[in-house]
Prior knowledge:
Blueprint: E1 11-12, E2 30-39, E3 42-50, E4 56-63, E5 71-72, E6 92-100, E7 105-114, E8 117-125, E9 131-136, E10 142-147, E11 156-162, E12 173-178, E13 184-191, E14 203-206, E15 211-213, E16 216-226, E17 231-240, E18 248-251, H1 262-265, E19 273-281, E20 284-291, E21 295-302, H2 303-312
The protein binds beta-D-mannopyranose.
Amino acid sequence: MTWKCKGELFKRCKKNPILTADDWPYEANSVFNPAATIINDNILLLVRVEDHRGFSHLTVARSKNGIDGWEIDPEPTFAPDPVNHPEEIYGIEDPRITYIDEMGKWAVTYTAYSDSGPLPALAFTEDFCNFDRIGPILPPENKDAAVFPVRFNGNWAMLHRPDPASSNMKANIWISFSKDLKKWGEHEVLMYAREGGWWDAYKIGLCPPPIYVSDGWLIMYHGVRQTTSELSYRLGLALLDLEDPRKVLHRSEKWVFGPREPYEQSGDVNNVVFPCGWIVVDDELRIYYGSADTSVSMASAKMSDIIQYILKCPEDTMH
Ligand code: BMA
């Protein structure tokens, strides 16, 4: 059943899940958490593919309409290279891609799963065939990194989510700056997880890369809520200042999207919606998300509705 819940901003694609392991040209356990971009009039997804060892790599799927008719690379497009990059020993996961106009390249941030835990790594590509690896850009444990497409006062900016060593501490979204996209500093917390009964209590992380809208930088983030039996991954929105992305102007109090359909509620990890990519086509904002860590799904909203919504959201009270 596909339906729009009262007040829900995003509408699920009727063909969800749009990609599953059964569609894959080679053996795979699951395909999920895709990054997304538009290239040569095609919608390109860089999909996380998990093999039957439990290790992940990234593979490109291209389609004209971004819904069906996918052409999937016949073998892994961007596979872990643990010989030259030991930080990739347990695979590479959850890519985010940002087109850097100034460089004429995409920056691909991804989670390298090292033997000291997950860490953000960076590669560049001009064609999604060849990737120029930079390697780790922050130490473990840290995930959910994505860079902004422009500089701020000459510096690149990146959002990411360090994981605290103690489970009693909150996992918050941080912002860092760099002169060259490789060495990062000026680290500070951008947005705190809420507390107590909130849907985004204790653990939050960036979803797709920040997207430019005329009122600021729109970000989507996941909030993880622990119940007695399990976790639930839901999504919220925030708007950052255009000139100074360290300032959170608005933050949604309610989640804007959460697991509702069977393919989101049941899979390798139940109750997860996890977008790593979004694109804008005319006034349509499309999120491409992993459903239950098993398949790829899509949902869309009118960009004008999203902007209207976020501008009415309160300031971030967690600062
Ligand atoms: C997060 C990430 C995602 C995953 C999610 C739900 O920590 O590892 O890759 O989709 O958990 O299992």
